[in-house]
DNA sequence: CTTCGATTGCACCGTCCGGTTTACTTTCTG
DNA sequence: CAGAAAGTAAACCGGACGGTGCAATCGAAG
């Protein structure tokens, strides 16, 4: 009833589809898989429930599709953050702190995607193994690899000191973001900005004690 | 029908109660809060559903009660592990590795308790704030404090080197256990023993590079 | 044995949910 | 314009669930 007046645009087929996907992402993230009813997803998408079942076989397929999308969205967003802060850092410590804060607190329109990551954790034991596996490789795996690449470059430039950038990247995420993640229940509850910054700066200092250039 | 033959013992009133609690812990942990039906909990406890509602006001109160119990059980178990490995360590690195493995993989009858921790994460945004808060202080907070105490002692004995045992304890859990936690989806999926040991030993080595005695 | 409280089985209520059916309308295309 | 493709609203189905009412039962204490 909403899109009736506005000509649906000649974007073509996937017009309703993207609305469904967006709505499913929102509702799944907000309610979790079971609480999210197909009716509420349809309402959120301003779409008939039948239309959802025209696009997806059942509720689970809808979830899996949306999970896959979100995995890529989060990964690309984080890769972008990493590049932005580590491409040519002037004050390395400050950039690492800023990057850590950005990675640990999903901002802008990505909260829904991070909420879906929580769904992956909640449903992990009930999801097909290929889903959890591909999430790890396409999600955290990609950001960790991107981190490692930058660390290798920085090490070659004398800004860091490590022979194993992979391990350094792992230690960065562990020291800098893992506690903020857990403290905020994976982003489900808000973490005061000052606490976040304290956690991240402490982690970055430890990281630089491990891998800083001037020892 | 099961306890009919055996005399219910004069343990007194809470006989059925503990059965209910145990069953709720098992089923909530296995299925999550919503999937766990009160009927299935009653079946697992070999108890009438009506009896559950004689002991608890509703399903949510049952969950909250069981969560509180599990918080303490996990905390005590982990404190015990910490004491056992760090009371008088001969080979400190080996003990730290063993402790890290023990902390990162819930064994014996504690898997159900750890499964409930997953429920806390899954329901965090829908739980009363006091519940999540008290979980943090009574759960991870206690184990971290116990770790810090041992690190302070070890530092005084010259086995470690840190002025801030609190921070050292945080970095230990982050470097040693956090990745194993995330890799296993908080214990929901099994993590191969060799991978676990590799993660933990790498974390311990980094920890000792940060806080080891001989530098 | 009687009494009393705890427990039990079971039917029941209202609700919600995943998914389907049907009949109708819209929109694009040729 | 004709007709296919897509969308819509609404009723509907079978099943599950949280929670209650109630009569019957059990076990121990007096």
TrEMBL record, chains A, B:
It comes from Streptomyces fragilis. The keyword Aminoacyl-tRNA synthetase does not apply. It holds the Pfam family TetR_C_7. This is TetR/AcrR family transcriptional regulator. The keyword DNA-binding applies. Keywords: DNA-binding. Residues 37-56 bind DNA. InterPro entries: Homeodomain-like_sf, HTH-type_TetR-like_transc_reg, HTH_TetR, TetR_C_Proteobacteria. Residues 14-74 form the HTH tetR-type domain. PROSITE patterns: HTH_TETR_2. Gene3D superfamilies: Homeodomain-like, Tetracycline Repressor, domain 2.
């Amino acid at each position: 009833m909403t899109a009736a007046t506005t000509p649906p645009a000649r974007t073509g087929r996937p017009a309703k589809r993207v609305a469904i996907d967006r709505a499913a992402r929102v509702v799944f993230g907000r309610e979790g898989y079971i609480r999210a009813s197909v009716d509420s997803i349809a309402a959120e998408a301003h779409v008939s429930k039948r239309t959802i079942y025209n696009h997806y076989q059942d509720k689970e397929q809808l979830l899996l599709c949306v999970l896959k999308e979100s995995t890529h969205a989060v990964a690309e967003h984080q890769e972008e953050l990493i590049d932005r802060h580590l491409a040519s850092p002037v004050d390395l410590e400050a950039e690492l702190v800023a990057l850590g804060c950005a990675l640990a607190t999903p901002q802008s329109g990505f909260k829904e995607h991070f909420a879906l990551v929580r769904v992956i954790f909640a449903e992990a034991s009930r999801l097909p193994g290929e889903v959890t596996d591909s999430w790890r490789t396409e999600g955290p795996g990609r950001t960790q690899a991107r981190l490692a690449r930058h660390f290798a470059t920085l090490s070659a430039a004398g800004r860091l000191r490590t022979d194993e950038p992979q391990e350094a990247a792992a230690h960065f995420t562990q020291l800098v973001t893992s506690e903020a993640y857990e403290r905020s229940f994976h982003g489900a509850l808000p973490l005061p900005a000052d606490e976040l910054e304290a956690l991240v700066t402490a982690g970055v200092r430890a990281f630089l004690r491990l891998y800083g250039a001037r020892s």
